[in-house]
């Protein structure tokens, strides 16, 4: 229990041995590199207007490479400080906290129990991953990687969630399996999500199917022969992006 507290509390990191940073420090670092002009652009890009999927989100105007740099420099930040960042109204603060979790999880010196603690902490905060970039830049490397050699029923429960971001996590996390030529869950989840109403899910399903095709074209072709007529057009277009034009037209005409 004492060892687990070391991962969850405010003590120095086992990995680096350096004092942990604070949410206030990280936020000040982000604010120092943000610009009002970029904040306006990002607010539009991530659809923060009334009724849009990112409604009400706020931006400091920090680009992703800068956020990554700050995250890498603060890998030792303990969970209680990361929680403050995840609860922040600032989009980049949440992204920075999530990227810190990714870098901690990926560290070769991280022990299995620390990776489990990171995974559990991520699951507790899934609904703070409330835009597509927050999901896409993190879930594969934490949720997907953690579940590679474990039971994956969690992903099917997330696919049935009423929360868009949890649903997107369910399919994008399978990218970790695709990398290992393991396609079964991607294909099964794609079929389950085939009738989803939101364009962001159509894109996510199509994207993961495209990744399957990059690894094994025939597996994707067989899936499309069975399902092309039911796939939303956006998902289909994403899935066949790397097909030769005659084959692309063949599947598009099935719609």
Short description:
This protein is mostly helical and 255 residues long.
Written account of the structure:
This protein has 2 domains: 19-131, ARM repeat  fold; 148-254, Leucine-rich Repeat Variant. Helix 2 crosses helix 5 (79-86) and helix 4 packs across helix 6. The termini are far apart. The chain contains 17 helices and no strands. The longest helix has 17 residues, at 199-215. With 255 residues, it is mostly helical.
Write the SSE topology.
Layout (H helix, E strand, L loop, with lengths): L1 H7 L14 H11 L2 H10 L18 H10 L5 H8 L4 H16 L5 H13 L7 H5 L2 H9 L5 H7 L4 H9 L2 H4 L5 H9 L6 H17 L1 H11 L5 H7 L5 H8 L3
InterPro entries: ARM-type_fold (IPR016024), DNA_alkylation (IPR014825)
Protein name: DNA alkylation repair protein
Our Rg estimate from Cα atoms comes to 19 Å
Helix content: 55-70%
Query: How is the CATH topology of the largest domain named?
Result: ARM repeat  fold
C-alpha end-to-end distance: 56 Å
Taking the sheet with the most strands, its summary is: none
Q: Identify the CATH architecture of the largest domain.
A: Up-down Bundle
Number of strands: 0
Shape: globular
Number of domains: 2
User: What structural class do the secondary elements suggest?
Assistant: mainly alpha
SSE order: HHHHHHHHHHHHHHHHH
The first-level CATH class of the largest domain is given as Mainly Alpha
- In percent terms, what proportion of residues is strand? under 5%
Instruction: Note poorly predicted spans.
Output: 1-19
What is the typical, i.e. mean, pLDDT?
92
Protein name: DNA alkylation repair protein
Pfam families: DNA_alkylation
Organism: Parabacteroides distasonis (strain ATCC 8503 / DSM 20701 / CIP 104284 / JCM 5825 / NCTC 11152)
């Amino acid at each position: 229990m004492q060892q687990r507290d070391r991962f969850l509390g405010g003590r120095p990191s086992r990995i680096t041995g350096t004092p942990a940073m604070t949410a206030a420090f990280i936020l000040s670092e982000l604010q120092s590199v943000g610009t009002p002009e970029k904040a306006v652009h990002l607010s539009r890009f991530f659809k923060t207007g009334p009724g849009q999927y990112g409604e009400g989100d706020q931006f400091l105007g920090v680009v992703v490479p800068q956020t990554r740099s700050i995250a890498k420099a603060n890998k030792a930040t303990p969970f209680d400080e990361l929680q403050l960042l995840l609860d922040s109204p600032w989009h980049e603060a949440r992204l920075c906290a999530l990227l810190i979790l990714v870098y901690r999880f990926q560290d070769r010196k991280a022990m299995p129990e620390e990776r489990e603690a990171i995974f559990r902490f991520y699951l507790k905060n899934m609904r703070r991953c409330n835009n597509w970039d927050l999901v896409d830049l993190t879930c594969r490397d934490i949720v997907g990687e953690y579940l590679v050699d474990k039971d994956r029923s969690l992903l099917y429960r997330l696919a049935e969630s009423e929360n868009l971001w949890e649903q997107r996590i369910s399919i994008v996390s399978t990218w970790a399996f695709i990398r290992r030529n393991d396609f079964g869950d991607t294909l099964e989840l794609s079929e389950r999500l085939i009738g989803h109403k939101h364009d962001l899910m159509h894109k996510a399903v199509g994207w993961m199917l495209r990744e399957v095709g990059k690894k094994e074209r025939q597996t994707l072709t067989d899936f499309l022969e069975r399902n092309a007529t039911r796939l939303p057009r956006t998902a289909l277009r994403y899935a066949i992006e790397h097909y030769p034009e005659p084959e692309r037209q063949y599947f598009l005409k099935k719609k």
